[in-house]
Amino acid sequence: MKENFIKSTLILIIGGFFTKILAMTIKIGMARVIGTQGLGLYMMLLPTFNLCITISQFGIPLALSKLISEDTRNNKKLFLSILPISIIINIFMMIFIILLAPAIANTFLKNKDLTISIYAISLVIPFTTTSSICRSYFFGKNQMLPHVISNLIEEILRLLIIIWFIPIIIPYGINITVCFLILSNIVSESISTIILLLYLPKNVTFHKNDFILNKTYVKESLQICIPNTTSRLIGSIGLFLEPIILTNVLLKVGYPSWYVTKEYGILSGYIIPLLLIPSFFTLAISQALLPTISKAYAKKDKALIKKKLKQSITLSLMIGVPTTIIMMTKPSLILKTIYHTTAGIKYLKVLVPICLFQYFQSPLGSTLEAIGKSKELMKITLLSTIIRTLLTFLLSYLKIGLWGLIIAISINILLTTILEYYQIKKYL
User: Fold this and answer.
1) How far apart are CA 163 and CA 226, in angstroms?
2) How far apart are CA 292 and CA 294, in angstroms?
3) pLDDT tier at 124 (50, 70, 90 boundaries)?
4) Measured torsion, CA atoms of residues 265, 271, 273, 274, in degrees rounded to the nearest 10
5) C-alpha span between 56 and 48 (Å, rounded)
6) 3-state secondary structure of 199
7) Is-contact 64 138, C-beta < 8 A?
8) 276-288: per-residue pLDDT in tens?
9) Contact at 8 Å (CB) between 217 and 83?
10) How far apart (Å, rounded) are the C-alpha atoms in residues 382 and 389?
11) Which of 40, 116, 143, 156 is deepest in the core (most CB within 10 A)?
12) Contacts of residue 401, Cβ cutoff 8 Å, sequence gap at least 6
């Protein structure tokens, strides 16, 4: 198990490193091609996109990954028992988005030009869900190479689309360009799914009995899916409401629309992605940690769980601390080198030390999921999201621009980390 954990972590770290570089290159290319205003529109739409994806996936990839990793069930029956639930949810979600697209764009996002992009989200949903479910099998089996390869090819495709096609599309208008960026996920997710399918066992056969619904498997899956989806849904709703609350309050207190779009675009499109660069490392650790701890928890091996968690936190700090020091001492150089601008440097200086605590969250959260404490994680997410949303709303009335949101983000990170650590300490 030790060798598998180290091997899986190394594969995910190396793959995550290159994927993150590609993702950053895509973000930089996008910012330069569509401009600050275009990036602001895209970033305002992104929380809505993420919320729809969260609902449509319904926590099924995580449930499959955890249950497969325990290695005590018939994986074919498990997959075929939960697949109909996924299909039904995706169909309903697509219809729901199509019906509510104009209302979301006009009433919530205050921009009717985004309506067509919201329609596009409904078309992307089944492709992202399929890709995520395929990945969950390999995570459960502790086989990380297929995930890494599919991710890298997916990001390369996105980069090529931006280089080749965005300059052709952009003369048709920024709203059409944003819509095209959303639709491009269909191509990248489809290719990713095909690559993952190539790695599946070739000798798998299906019999009539395999398609009979196993109620036990469905119940076990839902016990993971429901709290996990609720937790992710709460977080996504918070992010969905963030630009809506921010826009409405700042407009009400006298800030112009262009200022809100520009500053929110800088924060969400430049600063937050920059701060999350090391997240590929902590995400890799947490992804490798989930199947390892799930298996150890099934065997009631608390000593191994504690050991792996300590190793994960230590590894996270090894990358988190140097990154924090570099960003604190050379913020303008980093922004200038990556984005060719120093816009948002004041936000970066404040958030850098706070984000050090975020490097703990992935290992802590994965451990709580692996030991069956999804409900506790859901409660933590609910509390921290409510506090973040309320603070954003109240502090924005103080006429301090985006600093109300910055303070809310900082408190959210600190509170979430402390509460997750408390729950781990309590159960282990």
Assistant:
1) 40
2) 6
3) very high
4) 150
5) 12
6) coil
7) no
8) 777 767 777 777 7
9) no
10) 11
11) 40
12) 250, 255, 259, 263
